[in-house]
Design brief:
This protein has about 160 residues and is an alpha+beta fold. It contains six helices and five strands, in the order βββααββαααα. A hairpin with a 2-residue loop joins β1 and β2.
Length: about 160
């Protein structure tokens, strides 16, 4: 979007493109057309909207429920007015990314495959999830003793909850 929106706290930067977002029902919702525009490298809003319409029809014909998971919410347009637009939560957007044939979408698809494999491995061996949590805390810069206390606290809480 070339012209700036008045309230840019409602904009997420995604692959150097602007994506409108809104907090509703305890979730973030993102403009589907904005995501499509970024992934297809399309700066023309009308062409991105046409691409999304075509993709919606293709997904419906394939029996995908992705389209039914998209809501419509009013979002500010570049003209400053609010219009209803298709929006989706993070889970639905990640699924949508998988449906768009694009070089820009490929890194996300690879990341999703990696995360999916990691979660499947963690189901087989739950200790992997504990180790991943420790690694994340370390990368965030938490001290080792804090991490150990946190992990013990989680274990104690889970034990009490189970009882």
């Amino acid at each position: 979007m070339k012209k700036e929106l008045k309230n840019n706290k409602d904009i997420a930067v995604f692959e150097r493109g602007e994506v409108r977002k809104v907090w509703k029902k305890e979730k973030w919702y993102f403009s589907v057309i904005d995501i499509v525009a970024v992934l297809t490298n399309q700066s023309d809003f009308k062409k991105a909207k046409t691409y999304w319409t075509t993709l919606k029809n293709r997904l419906k014909n394939e029996g995908s429920e992705l389209v039914t998971k998209c809501d419509q919410l009013k979002m500010q347009s570049i003209d400053g007015k609010f219009y209803k637009t298709d929006v989706a939560d993070v889970e639905t957007i990640l699924r949508l990314v998988q449906s768009i044939p694009s070089k820009k979408a490929e890194p996300f698809k690879l990341w999703l495959a990696k995360v999916g494999k990691e979660r499947i491995d963690e189901i087989a061996d739950p200790e992997l999830a504990v180790n991943r949590a420790k690694e994340i805390y370390e990368k965030k810069g938490y001290p080792k003793d804090w991490i150990d206390k946190r992990m013990r606290g989680i274990a104690v809480r889970n034990t009490l909850t189970d009882e």
